[in-house]
Amino acid sequence: MCARRTDRARRLRFLRCGGALAFALAVASAWGQIARDYVLELAPETPDTAKARHQLVAERRKGPVVMVHRGASAFAPENTLQAYASAMDFGADGVEVDVRRTRDGVLVLFHDDTLERCFHALGSVRQHTARELLALKPRTAFGRPAGAAPASFVQLLDLARQRAMLLHLDLKEADLADDVARWLDAADCWDHIVSINTSNAGRLISEARFRPLRYKVPGLYDGRQDMDPEAVTAALRQPGEMILVDDPRVATMVLHRPPYQPVPYNQSYLITPRPPGPHPPSTTNEFDPTELVAALGLRVNPNSPAELLALINRSFAATSATETTIDPEHERLMRIVERAWAADRLGQLGKRKRDVVRALERVVRARTPDADWRYHRLDGGVAARALGELDATAAVPTLVEAIRHPRFSALQDGPPVPAGIPPAWTDTKFATAVMTTLGDLRCRAAKRFLREYVAFDDAQANALGPPLFVEATRALLRQNLDWGGIAGLLRSPNPAVRGAAVIECLDFPTEERQRALREAAPWALNLPGAKTLPSPTPAAPPRSRPGTALPPKPAP
Question: Do 257 and 308 share a domain, yes or no?
């Protein structure tokens, strides 16, 4: 053991002295764990440490088990180690995570099929390398970061071993099961897994070491029932072992657990970056917007509003001589991405000129339908977010009209809405972007509409598309409300409105919000708020950027 510790210290000293590449090659040779950008070594566990961990996991599995959906996103951007660790700090037993693969083979944790909600980026995780994901600029939503560098699967396992964390795995792609199984073998973490979504699970479901637990009820995060003590109490009385929430604080209170026990996360694995290499080719034949965006950056000046406006205003019918052989379906996707990219750049440039605002409003009104739901009205959603970044309050009537008439599209040179696709479902991303933007645009018109929306019943909201009560409440709380208006949200008969208001008032307290809580929801004052907590002991700083290679395949 002493010799192993001495050897590890020698390798770390060598790394600090500048031998990163040589060290990477040495580790790759010894451990066989190499990816295009990163080399990883899982920390060994002593038998005593492993035994104690498995005992803690066994205790957690006895229940009642509180699982947190995507980590505690009230305290850190979802899909991040901080969100997963925060869930445990606030009394949870484990987390639900979504597993994907990067272009260069790294398993990372990210929920959405596309990146634009959380980042200034287009396309999917699968179309970016791990290094590229780490370089993406996060968006903001409701005044805080909407995204951050997603954690890798091996980072999750490292954290799970330290905290005896239970895991619910949702494999978002079809070819991940074997690699996930190899990592669970390497980390000795099979007993941590309490649930696996059946789609894409492969042999994981039939693995003898997988011992699933039962959920008592469907996810309590739906309609923010997880912030309703009565709903949580009723759920915990049902048969089964687990509940699934977005926020663990009410469940912790109902179960009489300590409300907040911060534990620092000490990274115990080692990751070494390698020099950038050639961009790996796409592993699929589907349309790849990242390649188009790279070409646009060379053809169009991304800092020129005039060139970006010209790209937005170009008609679908205005194909160049080199594009005459492009399939119409492919051309439509190209135009959607071109408009979305140009709109995003205009928002980031921050130049609120009249012609820029008008062009972005036109994209919102003329949002492009497409049969592929990932691109359906993508340009309109990105343009709406850009209007928010520009603080273009004059655009509020256009945004409100887009919510009130979701099937409306003024586009004349593009295709109609594809037949057979429910508009309410396919408009979710676009409507969410618009509602988020209405929170950024603080004015009477936005405030008036948001107040009207949160007072809707389910039938009225469904008539306009996917119900967005949580988003509307968060947006409304960014407007100028007195304590009486806030108390009205806290007393709402709609649990989604009520729960979202409790979270915002707890985590971003003001004098008016504190008074509203005392008047309308005094029980919530017993919950810890993200902004009023003592600072936890800082975790050890990461040794480098996160990424992973796979453990070596077993010998035949």
Answer: no
**How many Cα neighbours within 13 Å face the side chain of 384?**
31
Give CA 299 to chain center in angstroms. 31
pLDDT, residue 316, reads: 67
**Residue 405 pLDDT:** 85
Q: What is the pLDDT of residue 163?
A: 96
DSSP string, 348-361: HHT---HHHHHHHH
How do residues 288-323 score in pLDDT, each as one tens digit?
Answer: 999 999 999 999 999 999 999 999 998 765 444 444
Mean model confidence pLDDT for the chain:
85
Quote the domain boundaries for residue 386: 289-480
DSSP structure string for 21-82: HHHHHHHHHHH--B-SSEEEEPPP--HHHHHHHHHHHHHHHTS-EEEEETS-TTTS-TTSHH
Considering only CA atoms, give the Rg of the chain: 25
Do residues 90 and 176 share a domain? yes
pLDDT of residue 451: 98
Write out the DSSP string of 427-463.
Answer: THHHHHHHHHHHHHS-SHHHHHHHHHHHT--HHHHHH
How far is residue 166's CA from residue 84's CA, in Å, rounded to a whole number? 11
CA–CA dist 92, 155 (Å, integer): 19
Looking at the structure, tell me whether residues 346 and 412 fall in a common domain. Answer: yes
In a domain, 501, yes or no: no
Neighbour count for residue 466 (Cβ, 10 Å): 20
DSSP 534: P
Total number of domains in the chain? 2
What are the CA-CA distances from residue 364 to residues 112, 119, 304, 509 (Å)?
22, 19, 21, 34
Residue 186 and residue 97 share a domain? yes
Residues 166 and 314 in one domain: no
How far apart, in whole angstroms, are the C-alpha atoms of residue 411 and residue 135? 34
Structure tokens at 173: 């792609």
Tokens 């764990």 correspond to 33
Structure confidence by residue, pLDDT tens digits, 237-249? 999 999 999 999 9
Whether 168 and 242 share a structural domain? yes
Residue 525 counted as domain residue: no
* Residue 201 maps to a domain: yes
User: In this structure, is residue 545 part of a structural domain?
Assistant: no
Cα 193 from Cα 169, distance rounded (Å): 7
pTM, two decimals, is 0.86
Alpha-helical segments (H) within 327-377: 328-349, 354-365
Length of the chain: 556
Q: Same structural domain for residues 134 and 85?
A: yes
Same domain, 334 and 442: yes
